[in-house]
Amino acid sequence: MSDSNGTTRARRILTAVDSSSWEHPADRAALAAFRRIPAFDEVLRKLFGLFGEKPVRLAFQANALRVSDRQFPEIYKRYLDVLQVMDAPEVYELYISQTPLVNAGAYGMNRPFIVLNSGAVRLLDDDELIFLLGHEVGHILSGHVLYRTMMVLLINLARMGFPVVGLAARAVLLGLLEWSRKAELSADRAGLLAGQDPNAALGAFMKLAGGGDDDETDLNEFLRQAETYREDGDVADLVFKVLNLLGTTHPFHVLRAAELRDWIEAGEYDRVMRGEYRRRDDEEKPYLDDLAAAARSYAADAQSMMSQLETAARRMREAIAESFKWP
């Protein structure tokens, strides 16, 4: 992390931080539910064992270079810093793939790895790139990679018309997509904790959404746009917002920025930075607590949606009444 003078500022090392310290409650509850299905992970591994660990890894890494102290050494240095800040138990393989799409992903079954798109390397500045790397490390530490890999493979099989992806599998895929969008919110918080620079995290969303250099964009304007999208619009707009999310693995970038800012303003980021977080060797949180937290989260989302629907319906009634007024 660099300040305005270009000097490096130290980041707090989050010793033994547990992933529950940043996970969205709905993400935690969904993962807990998955893991309590008898041999669920083992079944997944056997299912995709039809492909094999090595072929799956090679498929993701076919057009990529492995990052090391000899290839992309500066990025490798930043990546090691991220692993140190998050107190990761090992160094996961990192690759850069030649593609203009500004994105990254964490994949794998038994051996997680990260693929960083070259478009992200070119567009993001150092602090924004650290946020993105921390985001992917957060996916690994939260145990997301097996399910994410399964979801990506199912999506690709569905696109190819593979017969294994029938109606039942498509229903499972929709469920995984809903979980994935919540998992992205968790990983965004992990990325913030890794970089410890809120402006860089929010700025990364702005560039992921529309690209552009710093002299072409304005973060405050982007955040106002996020609030406008989340709060405004008539009933038709709300319907399209829901439909726009169906079939996507990520929430929209403007919404992710708003969600992360909410987490910051709620004091949760500062709490973790003060060292008030759960450690990996702490007693496991009861499963029912996660379910209750998830229920509160979905209830808040539903209440917000109903409030927006009521407001939109009122605006439509007023607009219709106004249109029938005599001049």
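Next protein, fold it too.
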Amino acid sequence: MKSYGSEWKRRLKAGEFILGGHVFLCNAAIAEAMACFGYEYLWIDGEHSAYDKGDILAHITAVNGAGAGAIVRVTANEPALIKPVLEMGPDGIIVPMVNSAEEAAAFVSVCTYPPKGTRGFGPRRASRYGVLSDKEYLGSVDESLIKIIQIEHKKGVENIDSILDVPGIDSVVVGPYDLSGSMNILGQLLHPDMIAACRHIVERCKARCIPCGPSMGPGNEDLLRFWLDLKPDFMFCGDELGFVKTGTESTIKKIKEMKVIG
């Protein structure tokens, strides 16, 4: 079976740009459709959605079945929340609100088996339900799992150098909205202070050759241009709720205009 985690790392190391999307709704068919529509990786959001564990597993299998990588953002940087998701065999894990080197190290540890980490052993889908022997699985899991930290608070920006010094971080994703909120400029994503903070994160990541990119919606073209000008390694842009909203509003407006004209 294809390892989308390994592909993520290989492609970014080769200088390729990766575009991913977000999914929030509970029906896994929507995630499957998003993969069919062309997203190569999908961010399955376990933080701001109504997913239970079964929903997350269904989304992972649907996304992989449609030929895309499945990356799950967990609710918080807690072993009890991360552990069951790891056993579902996602291609990557995103942990939100990393503000210190200690928090980053704790996340890497819980995702890594001893002796390098503290992950408990109990893979289910992660080992293809036992099709992979323990030796095969343990020999490939570090390469196939993407460990992504999210910087979305001014404390994380202030501590970015010490955070990036933590071994085992595979990628860094920027969360602009919460970052702007921590700076008391919530939603002002092109405020000069936000621009400076985001530039600093990207510059420090590039200095260490750690892939970095934003999580954002597609509606603000100026914001999109700002991020593309920074030359991110990847971008998660757009979600099913946003696309339904845009399509619905556009269709209703068009029909109303045609009816008036007619």
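About the second fold: The chain is about 50% helix and 15% strand.
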